[in-house]
Structure formats: C-alpha cells, structure tokens
Amino acid sequence: MNIIRPLEFLIKPEKSAIVWLNGHVGNRLTDRLWNASRLRYAADGAANIIYDNLKKRSLQPPHKVVGDMDSIDPQLLKRLTAEGIIEHITEQDTTDMTKTFRVLAKNLENDSIISNILVLGGLGGRFDHVFASLKTLVSEMKPYSIPKLSLDDINILMVLPEGSHHLELGAEYKTFLTGVCGIVPICQRETRVTTQGFKWNLASEVLSFEGLVSTSNQVENSSLFLETSAPLLFMMELRKELLESSS
C-alpha cells in the first residue's frame, strides 16, 4: 500500500521540491513555501515573475530555470545563463512543466530528504493548459514514492496511480482544509474505485464522465483510503484564511 502525507508540504516545507509554472503570480502562502523549500525549479516564463519580485516579496531565486526559453525576458536569460542555472531544452513535443519535471527527477535520484514535489500554478488560465498540466501529472508520476501535488489559490490536487493508497492528513487537517474534496477519473479506461473516510464512500464503483463522478464529496477522517484500478484525480479545498494569513 502506498502511504501519502499530502499536507506535509505545509508543515515541513524544507522537505519539498517546488516547480513554479508560467502564469502563477503567487500569494503569501506560496511565497513562504517557495522560500522554505529544499529545491526551487522554475519554468522559463515563471522566472520573469520571480525575478521581478525578488526584493518586493523577498523571494529566493530558483536553483534551475527550465524550458525552451521562449517566454523569458532576453536580458534575464542572458544573466541567468552566465550564472549557470539555465536548462535550455529546445524540443517542442513536451510542455515546460514536463521538461522541468524530468530535469528535477534526475536531481532527485540521490536525494533522500525530498518527500514531495509541489507545483505552483498550472490549474488556472487557459483550459488547454490545465489539461496539459493534468497530463503531465499522469505521465510523470514515477517515482510513486514521491507524491506530486499541484497547488493554486483554492485547491490541492494530485494524481493517484493505480493501486491502494493510504492518505494521512494529520490530526490538524481541519486547520488547512475545508473538507470539500473530489475524486475524478482521469484516464480513458475503466476506473473502479473503493474509498474509506469520506462522507460518500465508494465500494468498487466505476467512475466515468458518462456515469458517476465523485465531486463535492467531504473528508470525514484524518486517515483516508482509496483503491483505484486506473490513475485517479484527487483534490481538496484549502481554507481561504490559510492563504490570507500566511506570512
């Protein structure tokens, strides 16, 4: 069984690797998590936002900037190239998010401290970009031992691979979450799901967009169980005050 602690990044951000995507402006919570993380990677367009706010928001610089470099300011590109933190990948068959994940994965091979990868952004803006982000979360799930979560102003979202999963939210989970959650199929094959710890549990039921989708469900326990026959999208809603009070 795969044991996942999806809220650990909020309690121990120093054990996180963070990927900042194009279009994510940031807020006090994500700025704090970014600065405290062990590894900081940025897609090329996100570098513009980060470096424009280094002093204003006291942001730490990224350890790597990855992508095809079509979105980064030319003068900033020149500067960061001289600093040796640019990973320029020219191929156009993958998104900057996928490119960044693959570069990061190589650097995690000998790192025993990182316990999660947190993605900032990728869930807002253009809808085709949202689907591209979800596709990357599915295709780049390995290694399964390091959960990959996407965070925006409302949601914590992750893709659970096929198999059984025990999600430990911790005794203080209500401090961070409203309790509202969703369990949604993401692959084009039968997705049979069993759950425990929710208001409306599933008992080996098939989820599909032509049938049942478990949206507006409710977390009712700090320990959750999900078993799925195919990759599954799981999301939880953050408390608004968590975003507003973070410093």
Automatic annotation (TrEMBL):
<dbReference type="GO" id="GO:0030975">
    <property type="term" value="F:thiamine binding"/>
</dbReference>
<dbReference type="InterPro" id="IPR036371">
    <property type="entry name" value="TPK_B1-bd_sf"/>
</dbReference>
<dbReference type="GO" id="GO:0006772">
    <property type="term" value="P:thiamine metabolic process"/>
</dbReference>
<dbReference type="GO" id="GO:0009229">
    <property type="term" value="P:thiamine diphosphate biosynthetic process"/>
</dbReference>
<dbReference type="InterPro" id="IPR036759">
    <property type="entry name" value="TPK_catalytic_sf"/>
</dbReference>
<keyword id="KW-0418">Kinase</keyword>
<keyword id="KW-0067">ATP-binding</keyword>
<dbReference type="GO" id="GO:0005524">
    <property type="term" value="F:ATP binding"/>
</dbReference>
<keyword id="KW-0808">Transferase</keyword>
<protein>
    <recommendedName>
        <fullName>Thiamin pyrophosphokinase thiamin-binding domain-containing protein</fullName>
    </recommendedName>
</protein>
<dbReference type="Pfam" id="PF04265">
    <property type="entry name" value="TPK_B1_binding"/>
</dbReference>
<dbReference type="InterPro" id="IPR006282">
    <property type="entry name" value="Thi_PPkinase"/>
</dbReference>
<dbReference type="InterPro" id="IPR007373">
    <property type="entry name" value="Thiamin_PyroPKinase_B1-bd"/>
</dbReference>
<feature type="domain" description="Thiamin pyrophosphokinase thiamin-binding">
    <location>
        <begin position="163"/>
        <end position="232"/>
    </location>
</feature>
<dbReference type="GO" id="GO:0016301">
    <property type="term" value="F:kinase activity"/>
</dbReference>
<dbReference type="GO" id="GO:0004788">
    <property type="term" value="F:thiamine diphosphokinase activity"/>
</dbReference>
<dbReference type="InterPro" id="IPR007371">
    <property type="entry name" value="TPK_catalytic"/>
</dbReference>
<dbReference type="Pfam" id="PF04263">
    <property type="entry name" value="TPK_catalytic"/>
</dbReference>
<keyword id="KW-0547">Nucleotide-binding</keyword>
